[in-house]
Design goal:
Layout: H1 4-17, H2 26-31, H3 33-38, H4 42-63, H5 66-99, H6 115-124, H7 128-145, H8 151-157, H9 159-177, H10 186-201, H11 204-211, H12 217-233, H13 236-249, H14 261-279, H15 291-294, H16 297-323, H17 331-338, H18 340-351, H19 357-364, H20 367-384, H21 393-401, H22 403-428
Amino acid sequence: MATTAERLRLYKKELKKADKPHRFNRYAFIFNSFYFVRRNMPGAFLLWFTLGWFFGLIGERLTEHWGGFLAGWLLVHLAAGFAAPYFVRRHLEWFVKTYDKVKFNATAEYLPIRPRRLVILGLVSGGWYLLYWMYKNWCAIKKATKEPMWPLARGYLFPSFFIYLLLQHIRRHYEKHYPDGKKLQPVILGLMWTAIVSFLMLGVAQSLLQQFAFMPALICLICGILLSLAAIVLLIPVQQAANACNAQTKPKLELRRSFSWGEIVVSVVGIVMTILALAGPSGTAQLRQPALIRLSAETQVKVGQALGEAYRGIYGYAAVCAENEHPLEYFPAEFVRSAAPELQLLDDFFALDGMNLDMAFNVFIPQDNRKEINRILYNELKLMSAPGDSGIGSACAFLDNNATEVSESMTESARPFYLELFEQIEQEL
């Protein structure tokens, strides 16, 4: 990937060679919007990508044939071929005018802190200090180079997109002052850092805890801490290189000993967010073994049976009838009403592990299992169908027409099982 300085040199040469734009660009005609991706023109890419689909859909709507879509799509490609030279030239002129006075080789005064301070504050703040670290270094680069940028976006909003550029900037200046020193690898460091931070931002550890109740919660918590530490440790050689650059360009600059207000604020925010995460409905469950694991094997089986019965009444019959073009209108709601106490007991039990009843259905009755369950329910409804009925239409109609009676009958027959189950759960927990 070319740096901004390299692109500036290339664009200047390109402007000198092409005094007048060509009348037609065959590459823009062939590739349409993706041609502008190659030219680093995201705005033009979005414009022509949208136009291609817009006119294609209009053509399909007018002709009611896929050929109309193709005609509209080709029309936009043709227009892109003629318009691309103008768009490209305007982009080159804007880029050269904007970046011509930027001092790309200016050495910034990077954030002067000790590596151990980066590690300690990074861990204390739950990783939030790393965003502050990126923001301050981008501010220093902007101040030194006069490059038009938004450090807030690069540091706080989209850190994973700009970490490589920051590492590359520090590496370039470090190798300028220390050509024989230990080489930094911004590509490897950037990719590893992005992968780890993305993993943490997506909350994969917490998702694993919620999706797989059998996984010990403490292990998930430890994994999250170790990943945070890994993201911080990856930046230690970068901070060492930044301090070395500061020692050459700003020999009187001392490493910070006191805390700035920015460091205090971001550390407090990180601590508060970590406490809230641990104290939340799913966070409290992370500090103890999941409730389901603490039950005996026999009770776990019974919990699964209770969950299956609840699924049958709420979603199972409705899904099977809908698949066979006989959607249920009243039965699911009536079942929820009549079985409300039992469903609430189930919901309260799974809440101990940070889940509600719907989440429990998704965890313990995944889509593949639902297909098998629905097949069993289909056979069950088939037996309930009127004689001579080739499908399950009469059974579905019976469920809906007698929703209150059927749901109350199902609940009454299952109530002793539920009461016995939750008495057993209370004893075991």
